Amino acid sequence: MRRGKSLSRVKPVLGPTGRETADRSLGSLHDLPERLLLVGCSARMLAQSAARAGIRPVSIDLFADRETRACSAYCETVDAADIGFERESLLRAAERLAPAGRGYALVYGSGLDVDSGILEELARGRMLYGNPPEILRLLKTPDTFFDMLRRLGIPYPESGRIRPPDPENWLLKSGRSEGGKGVRFCSRAEPGSSAYYQRRLPGKAMSALFLANGEDAWIIGFNTLRTADHLVGQPFLFAGAVNRVDLAPRQRLQVRTYVERLVRAVPLRGLSSLDFMLDGETCRVLEVNPRPSATMALYDDDFPQGLLAAHIRACRGEMPDAMAAGRAVRAFKVFFAPFDLEVSEGTRWPDWCTDTPVTGTRIGVGQPVCTVYAEGADQQQVERLIERRESELFERLYAARS
């Protein structure tokens, strides 16, 4: 989806999200960078977390939605590739808005998994708070990654390069993708140069969001991941998550053990996530995302200074004494356009929507419009609330269309 290039400059504000107020109420935040460049397919969650720490970042993503603009000193869209960013568009915007050698720090989210070379370019002349390009490359190279899991004694679904004799029971995955965009049914696709086959497991995809400093790690929360299958060729597209999973204590311990082994072997720093499937009593690892993942948004409200501040400090080697998330059940789900639409001046977005597009944005059918959030006391209540809100949003947009 193209939402049109836009540049938004917002004057720094000292107040509820300002650095001075944050210093008085939350303790010193002067160890955090004042000049910060955020890069991600959607930089909104990173920008909002930065605001909790009193930082007004420069944000570059594919949408420049209203919430990202509100939290950023500058916010600009760049061109998209098939998956992630168009390299030159991103590098030009970064150099113009946050020039290398001018004291800018860099935090990246999604969008760079497909090309670690872009991260190398962005990190030149900027302080990188996140895992370096060589770690991103290692974890996104299937042969290397699965060999490492095997050596560490970490189980994963049967995987390989040779086409299986029973393709209907297998998936074809790209080693250079993210968000489920490169996952297809094996029987309906031909492999690419970086593709591999993986046995399909029944059940729900899950993840663990964790914080690490290269030696130690805290699991912040376990999540159930949601997918959408409305786009031809992307039957496992990531579409949301809820911060609850049906795991026994011994299975949670399995995942904690996996994270500990990975952190000591690689080593990982900052926020990362581990995706896995439950296969009987065993949790089998699908992939590791060595960067802040979308599930960060399910927990950021639980930390007064935000998880981005914890991410930056962990990249320096500092770890908190504990990472205790709250008890609230939270979920989010991407709302995809049921028809072509154009956002008008009269469009009113409910307060439970975020990633909301600006006036004049044109969105094609099947493309993401915004994200719907819900919070409650239990998972069933929250998921019912998400469904009701999706229905209400559909009715609003349909009425505005006619």
- What is the element string, with H for helices and E for strands? EHEHEHEHEHEHHEEEEEEEHEEHEEEEEH
C-alpha end-to-end distance: 23 Å
Structure summary, number of beta strands: 20
Low-confidence stretches: 1-27
Give the CA-based shape. Answer: globular
Instruction: Please report which band the strand proportion falls in: under 5%, 5-15%, 15-25%, 25-35%, 35-45% or over 45%.
Output: 25-35%
CATH class descriptor name of the largest domain: Alpha Beta
Overall residue-averaged pLDDT value: 89
Notable features of this structure?
single chain; 402 residues; alpha+beta; Rossmann fold; D-amino Acid Aminotransferase, Chain A, domain 1; OB fold (Dihydrolipoamide Acetyltransferase, E2P); 3 domains; 8-stranded antiparallel β-sheet; globular; disordered N terminus
Question: Layout of helices and strands, plus pairs?
Answer:
Layout: E1 7-9, H1 19-26, E2 36-39, H2 44-52, E3 58-61, H3 66-71, E4 74-77, H4 87-97, E5 105-108, H5 116-123, E6 127-128, H6 133-139, H7 142-152, E7 159-160, E8 170-174, E9 183-185, E10 195-199, E11 205-213, E12 217-228, E13 237-242, H8 249-265, E14 269-279, E15 282-289, H9 307-315, E16 329-336, E17 341-342, E18 353-354, E19 362-363, E20 368-376, H10 379-401
Parallel strand pairs: 2-3, 2-5, 3-4, 5-6
Antiparallel strand pairs: 1-4, 7-10, 8-9, 8-10, 11-12, 11-14, 12-13, 13-16, 14-15, 16-20, 17-19, 18-20
